[in-house]
Design a protein that fits this description.
single chain, about 260 residues, alpha/beta, Rossmann fold, 9 helices, about 15% strand
């Protein structure tokens, strides 16, 4: 399991996880600036991508990925950690970690998330996977990016977003990892367990998210008694662009400072 730790030894502990990728290997600049400047922050490669290996005999689940993170925290001697899950997999892993190992979780921040994959989300996730398998990574990347980013941002940055060095680059020639990510996402359902989470939690409701819609995030908030939602009418699945990232930094700072 490959990981990196950035920041001052005396700063509050945090982990930042994305969706189908990693903030390691010089990708840390894509993580929220507030975390990088104010926390001792952990980035790591999920099993099966970049420099973390995988055991393909295991059944992929959010619980499996959460156990990976718990094992890493135990290895590092970390507890009382701010868990920041940005988009999909990272946010759902954070939920499972808070359920399984509440001793490790100081707070929980989630964007682009869900407590269960309803039929429309399940069909979208399966489509992303199937396009990668049948048409290859470029077609998958094009489909996923066009759904995930603000339209104006996509139009201005299309050449940077697409290509082998663009978004989700850790999945180039790695269909197996994506298939296992999607399998874990499809089986994720914490509706009967998430109410037990006591850690203060922040959930972003992005009004223009075409994948994990406001319907998905509000269902999660309603089930979590110690959660607060932030409504962002123009928010999309991925927070990108200087203004949007600065605004999210302000939201993150306000929440983490309280906890």
């Amino acid at each position: 399991m490959y990981y990196e730790i950035h920041g001052d030894d005396s700063a509050p502990l945090a982990v930042c996880m994305g969706g189908w990728g990693s903030f390691c290997h010089d990708k840390g600049k894509d993580a929220p600036r507030y975390l990088r400047e104010n926390c001792r922050v952990l980035f790591y490669d999920y099993r099966g991508i970049a420099e973390s290996d995988d055991d393909l005999s295991t059944t992929p689940s959010m619980g499996l990925f959460a156990d990976d993170l718990a094992g890493l925290f135990d290895h590092l001697g970390w507890s009382d950690v701010h868990i920041v899950g940005l988009v999909g997999l990272g946010a759902c892993v954070g939920q499972e970690l808070a359920i399984r190992r509440p001793d490790l979780v100081r707070s929980l921040v989630m964007t682009g998330t869900w407590c269960r994959a309803d039929p429309v989300l399940a069909d979208q996730l399966a489509l992303f996977r199937d396009v990668h398998r049948e048409m290859g990574f470029p077609a998958f990347q094009l489909l996923a990016a066009s759904y995930s980013f603000d339209g104006a941002f996509y139009n201005e940055n299309r050449d940077r977003l697409l290509g082998p060095q663009g978004t989700w680059s850790f999945l180039v020639d790695n269909y197996t990892a994506l298939a296992r990510f999607v399998e874990a996402s499809l089986s994720h359902d914490v509706r009967d367990r998430i109410g037990a989470v006591q850690a203060p939690s922040l959930i972003l409701h992005a009004g223009k998210d075409a994948v994990t819609t406001e319907r998905h995030t509000r269902e999660l908030e309603a089930l979590m008694p110690n959660s607060e939602g932030v409504y962002w009418p123009e928010g999309t699945h991925v927070i990108a662009g200087r203004d949007a990232r600065s605004r999210f930094d302000e939201v993150l700072e306000g929440f983490l400072t309280k906890h």
